[in-house]
Amino acid sequence: MKIAFCASEMVPFAKTGGLADVVGALPQALEELKHEVIVILPRYKSIQDTKFKLERVKQDVSYTVIGKNIKVYFIERDEYFARDNLYGDKAGDYKDNLDRFSYYCKRSLGLLKEINFKPQIIHCHDWQSGLVPVYLKNLFVKDSFYKGVRTLFTIHNIGYQGLFPRDEFSKLGLSWDLFNMEYMEFFDKINILKGGIVFCDLINTVSNAYSKEIQTKEFGFGMEGILSRRKDSLFGIINGLDYSIWNPESDSYIAKNYSVKNLNEKARDKADLQKICKLPVKNEIPLFGIVSRLAEQKGFDILAGAIQDICKLKLQLVILGTGDQKYHVLLDDITKQYPEVVSLNLKFDDSLAHKIYAGSDIFLMPSKYEPCGLGQLISLSYGTIPLVFKTGGLADTVTKANGFVFDKYSAEELLKTIKSAVKEFSAEKKWQQLMQRAMQYNFSWEESAKKYVQLYEKAARQK
Ligand code: ADP
């Protein structure tokens, strides 16, 4: 099939979270299955000519090739995209995000015709590319080039919807008929995600559990009604993991490579991490790692509630992340109180992330909700045991057999589960077996890519 991806981030070009990992890996898995894929991204400041060997195709578009022959196109418009961050800065979201991403969506559709690539499917991801299905079925509907092009819309996190004031609606170039509750209005605001949901041919999310959860009031963030109405078009496909990047046997960021056959070498990565993080180098103390956005969604509210008690246990905690200022402050205070227990790293750092996945004993991921989650999949591959709240993709991938799971979202339950992990860590032989079991789980992209192909085929058959 011919497939075009539209997304706002992709490894190795630009990343803030799991979306980038997915868009970096899935096209290559599809290419392995003999499909023809292109990707269209905004050209952010981080995407440098020399680093990525870009070539120019249009005055405002350049491209590079990844995999065997996947062309990745970059839409340029410096006033919108040549900034330090993707979506916002310390002051919050960029004020012109509607201008930025509506421009990106419209230009992406135009580009397909200009390069004469007529896809059977445009695969869109999250609200930033949510206007692609809207424009396709409205602004581009009269152009025969786009006849028969179908869309799949993947929701990676329904908590982010692209909400804007109603008086910006005229910027979109769409009929005001679409600004009502059936289409793109949400409590008097423009809701871009909703537009994507209404106008795409099929929808999916990134785990089976999450595809059900978002149809409920508790997890739907107001989209539950519209999703329930489209439930026959809504599917769940778990993300795979790119094992060429996340593999302790070949990871070039870590101090010592290891595999399930020489697991004792993992201790060298632990010592290295302790040293880098200025924690006492002691193998017998269980080391907990966190690599995460610092947001309530990721469980930082219950972690905040339990942190004083956690720090009094015999353990160490390495945290890597950025996010809500209130958690920066809170964790900073805790680190000052317990410098021998907590190492806080308030930054985005790919290299340190790899070292944490390899060097920790336990990976802490108590997300309140989690569409799929990659941290737990990565940590399993490194024999680092995930400790999670039973929700969404975490519930689909972590069980008692490969991790620690609690099913009541509270600071008390989190603390209790951490205590039991500390206790189990001291039973060395059992712990070794647990690590070995964890490392045997395989969430390769191959299986998930095959499921995406089935969805693409289904979408292509839609009237
Ligand atoms: P999200 O909801 O943020 O997308 P996921 O678990 O799906 O969460 O994916 C997060 C991805 O981003 C993982 O690859 C994780 O290792 C990475 N990541 C998150 N925060 C950081 C950070 N501060 N530094 C480096 N990598 C990070």
Q: What is the secondary structure topology, with strand pairs?
A:
Elements: E1 2-6, H1 18-32, E2 36-42, H2 49-52, E3 55-58, E4 61-66, E5 70-75, H3 78-81, E6 88-89, E7 92-93, H4 97-114, E8 121-125, H5 131-137, E9 150-155, E10 163-165, E11 185-186, E12 189-191, H6 192-199, E13 202-205, H7 208-213, H8 217-220, H9 224-229, E14 234-236, H10 266-276, E15 287-294, H11 300-311, E16 316-323, H12 325-337, E17 342-345, H13 350-359, E18 362-365, H14 375-381, E19 385-389, H15 392-397, E20 404-406, H16 411-425, H17 428-440, H18 445-461
Parallel strand pairs: 1-2, 1-8, 2-5, 8-9, 9-13, 13-14, 15-16, 15-18, 16-17, 18-19, 19-20
Antiparallel strand pairs: 3-4, 4-5, 6-7, 10-12, 11-12
Bound molecules: adenosine-5'-diphosphate (ADP).
Adenosine-5'-diphosphate binds at residues 17-19, 21, 157, 291-293, 320-322, 348-350, 353, 372-375.
Strand content: 15-25%
Q: Helix coverage percent of residues?
A: 25-40%
Mean pLDDT: 97
Classified by CATH, the class of the largest domain is Alpha Beta
N-to-C CA distance: 18 Å
Query: What structural category characterises the helix and strand content?
Result: alpha/beta
Describe the strand arrangement of the main beta sheet, using strand numbers: 3-4-5-2-1-8-9-13-14
